[in-house]
Specification:
Layout (H helix, E strand, L loop, with lengths): L5 H9 L3 E5 L2 H4 L19 H4 L2 H6 L1 H17 L4 H12 L3 E5 L5 H4 L6 E2 L2 E8 L25 E5 L10 H10 L3 E5 L11 H7 L3 E5 L12 E3 L3 H13 L1
Parallel strand pairs: 1-2, 1-6, 2-3, 6-7, 7-8
Antiparallel strand pairs: 4-5
Helix pairs in contact: 6-10, 8-9
The structure holds 2'-O-acetyl adenosine-5-diphosphoribose.
2'-O-acetyl adenosine-5-diphosphoribose (OAD) binds next to α2 and α10.
Length: 244
């Protein structure tokens, strides 16, 4: 693994504000497949980018509901990995910390992170596809179940391609980003906007930008430091260095 930039550790110690933006790569080491890698098993022949849309749900609600059911079970059986745990520890080690995630799996919260800004919702919640309200009691055996109040099909409370982000989430993420002295982009392909715009807001406001990703992304040329390794490897080492 590449060495940690000493200036990064110093900058984190000195920073009044730190923002971490995460993507599916952080959960890869928990066994949750990312969106753009080849899928395996039962759902290998479906492209997540074609299932995670309002059009797919309108065309075939059963298919989309069942795909999310499979992902929900996968997430329920997964555990937070050393990357998630290190991010939760980082929150306790630095002053004024904000975690923004594109992940819908809730693994950051299970690792102990607090006040997580979830830009794309959460797969464990279900909502009415018409009224938009979260629904807790429904007939589990139906695919999809229907809304107890209006009878419309229920859907996961996640953001699909082409949909708006949850009200307030992007604003809160953007406000924290504008005040960040250090901004870490971890395990995201930096392709999906508006989330992918946050690191650029951080740069404009003078933050040190650090990317942790085994692969190059469109953000890489703009980063002060690009650490090409997995989150589960790099983040625990960063915590160890900070704790010294
Ligand atoms: P992607 O699947 O697009 O990208 C995952 C990134 O994680 C890739 O750049 C990988 O190189 C990297 N990666 C893989 N393993 C890693 C590891 N162990 N440590 C660090 N990085 C690793 O996922 P996102 O960027 O999260 O949106 O995708 C953004 C959004 O597009 C998702 O939230 C989802 C998706 O379609 C919606 O559902 C709206």
């Amino acid at each position: 693994m590449p060495a940690l930039p000493p200036r990064l550790v110093d900058a984190l110690r000195a920073a009044d504000n730190t923002v971490v933006l995460t993507g599916a790569g952080v959960s890869a080491e928990s066994g949750v497949p990312t969106f753009r890698e080849a899928q395996t098993g039962l759902w290998a022949r479906f492209d997540p980018q074609e299932l995670a849309t309002p059009e797919a749900f309108a065309r075939d609600p059963e298919l989309v509901w069942n795909w999310y059911g499979w992902r929900r079970r996968l997430v329920a059986d997964a555990s937070p990995n050393p990357g998630h745990l290190a991010i939760a520890r980082l929150q306790r080690l630095v002053s004024d910390f904000t975690l923004v995630t594109q992940n819908v799996d809730g693994l950051h919260q299970r690792a102990g992170s607090r006040d997580v800004i979830e830009l794309h919702g959460n797969i464990l919640r279900t909502k009415c596809s018409v009224e938009d309200a979260v629904v807790e009691d429904y007939a589990e055996e139906e695919s999809p179940p229907v809304c107890p109040s209006c009878g419309a099909p229920l859907r996961p409370d996640v953001v699909w391609f082409g949909e708006m982000l949850p009200p307030g989430a992007l604003e809160a993420a953007s406000e924290a980003t504008r005040g960040a002295e250090v901004f870490l982009s971890v395990g995201t392909s930096s392709l999906v906007y508006p989330a992918a715009g946050l690191p650029f807001e951080a740069i404009e406001n003078g933050a040190m930008l650090v990317e942790i990703n085994p692969d190059e992304t469109p953000l890489t040329p703009h980063a002060d430091y690009s650490i090409r390794a997995s989150a589960g490897e790099v983040l625990p080492r960063l915590i160890a260095a900070l704790s010294q």
